[in-house]
Design brief:
The chain is an alpha+beta fold and 442 residues long. The chain contains 17 helices and 13 strands. Helix 13 (297-310) packs antiparallel against helix 14. It is globular and about 70 Å long. The N and C termini lie far apart (55 Å).
Length: 442
């Protein structure tokens, strides 16, 4: 419980429906609060409260619902997750990359790229409609019960799944609904236990894919991250793979989003996965085509929108140094994820957009209508204010001056990269890559 509390505290989550914050717990007494909560669990008198629902904007203009359990429920769920996760991790399929130790979204991107370069170029770009909201409770609990026999733990999980949802309308009035309990499906996104439970149910699809022989029969490999799914086929079996996926998802009572699901032939046709675009690029010197990954237009637009908001006129009350620090943090997080493949073009665009917006914002704040570039050159933001110089970042990445043989990416190898020529490199080793092993020459 102590470790679970520390993990929740590190996440810095907001208060739930009871309004209790971490600061309030510290004033009350952390050890005392944790001891009382643990006693409730031992006596089986603990009951979860409603989940506070908030909405966050999505890039397409829509809103995503997010559930915020109260602090006590988050700590209990985190404690359960810490115990249950190692049990299910032992036989979790290698096709799943989300919410697992030593695996990440970048590893999933590397895996898709490796499959494409290995000949699995017929792709099913799949999307599920409301995955987290439509997983049936009964089938989900069966996935848990196959390894967990303790009825007290199963009862706790069922209560978390059935927890009511509380939200406020435009007038500030509170309303509570029990949609999850009434429909017997779904779980609020945002709770510590939801990632594990959602991964367990997706595991059923992957096992069904293998046990029905679809993997061998269609030469199709799955790469899954949460509710994002890509199926890469060795031969022209993408349409059959899509039909098989529809049938298996129907058996699992899940719905395929037909508007966003499609088949394509890479690299002639591009597709997006986990913020990256997969497609064909040409080497700068030889113009030789190769399969590459780069930040998608949607990912770049999302970052430019964040920069626009931070440099908007409404933010002029904020000190310029503080605004640059916020931008540095945002850009640093973005580039830390988007560093696979030819990224220089995207970095230069974001750098030019950011410095232009900052220059315009400072000029308006100080009522300087002309001479802004002379007063605030790019070096002013880099050297004086500490802004990240994005165009120079690719020079420091491990693949900038090295190359090595193409091989399957290891989920535990965080240093594997794809360079601007699509040569795979590892740990900065300087190995010459034979021409026959470069993508696009097979």
């Amino acid at each position: 419980m102590e470790h679970a509390y520390a993990r929740c505290r590190a996440n810095k989550g907001a208060a739930g429906v009871d309004g209790i914050t971490f600061e309030a717990v510290e004033v009350y007494g952390r050890e005392r609060w944790i001891g009382e909560l643990a006693q409730q669990l031992r006596e089986e008198s603990y009951r979860p409260d409603a989940v506070r629902r908030v909405y966050i904007p999505k890039p397409n203009g829509k809103q995503r619902s997010l559930g915020i359990p109260r602090l006590a429920d988050r700590v209990c769920q985190m404690a359960a997750m810490l115990v249950l996760e190692p049990i299910f991790e032992a036989d979790m399929p290698s096709e799943q990359y989300a919410y697992r130790h030593d695996r990440s979204a970048q590893d999933a991107v590397r895996r898709v790229h490796w499959l494409l370069t290995g000949g699995h170029r017929n792709v099913v770009d799949a999307d599920l409609a409301g995955y987290f909201d439509t997983i049936p409770h009964a089938e989900r609990m069966k996935s848990v019960a196959r390894r967990i026999a303790d009825r007290r733990v199963l009862r706790l999980l069922s209560r978390w799944l059935d927890a009511p949802v509380e939200e406020r309308d435009e007038r500030g009035r509170k309303t509570r609904t029990t949609l999850n309990r009434d429909t017997r499906q779904g779980i609020a996104q945002g709770s510590p236990i939801s990632p594990l439970l959602s991964s367990l149910y997706m595991r059923r699809f992957i096992l069904g894919w293998k046990r029905t022989g679809a993997e061998q029969r269609l030469g199709a490999q799955i790469v899954n991250y949460a509710d994002d799914l890509v199926i890469c086929c060795k031969v022209d079996n993408a349409v059959k793979a899509l039909e098989t996926m529809r049938r298996l998802m129907g058996q699992l009572k899940l719905t395929v989003n037909e508007e966003k699901t499609r088949t394509c032939r890479a690299p002639e046709e591009q597709f997006d996965f986990l913020g990256y675009t997969f497609g064909q690029r040409h080497a700068a010197k030889t113009r030789r085509p190769y399969i590459a990954t780069w930040p998608s237009h949607k990912s770049i637009r999302r970052m430019t929108e964040a920069v626009r908001i931070q440099t908007d006129r409404n933010m002029e009350w904020m000190d310029a140094g503080d605004r640059v620090r916020c931008l540095k943090q945002k850009l640093g997080g973005w580039t830390n994820y988007f560093k696979l493949g030819p990224v220089t073009k995207a970095y230069r665009f974001l750098d030019r957009y950011t410095t232009t917006r900052l220059r315009r914002s400072l000029g308006k704040k100080h009522k300087q209508s002309s001479g802004r570039r002379k007063r605030y050159p790019d070096e002013f933001f880099y050297q004086r204010m500490g802004l990240i110089c994005l165009p120079k970042l690719p020079q420091s990445l491990p693949w900038a001056k090295a190359g090595c043989s193409v091989r399957e990416p290891d989920a535990r190898d965080a240093h594997l990269r794809f360079d601007e020529r699509d040569v795979k490199t590892e740990h900065g080793m300087d190995h010459e890559t034979p021409a026959t092993e470069r993508v696009g020459t097979r």
